[in-house]
Design brief:
single chain; 58 residues; 2 helices; 53% helix; 0% strand; elongated
């Protein structure tokens, strides 16, 4: 069975990131945060859901 080329690319990038960060998730996520700060236009903005009224008062 032949591996999907898209999956092959995803696995290649995963291994590359793992090598560059020595498997350290703190380093990896800081890298992601830095990218997000530098490129806010490329980040997904979650849609705000309207609040549902429950009919209860607190």
């Amino acid at each position: 069975m032949q591996t999907d080329p898209i999956l092959r690319e995803v696995y290649r990038i995963k291994e590359e990131l793992n090598r560059e960060t020595d498997g350290n998730l703190e380093i990896l996520f800081e890298r992601f945060r830095k990218f997000a700060r530098q490129h806010p236009e490329r980040m997904v903005q979650p849609k705000q859901e309207p609040r549902k009224r429950t009919g209860q008062r607190s």
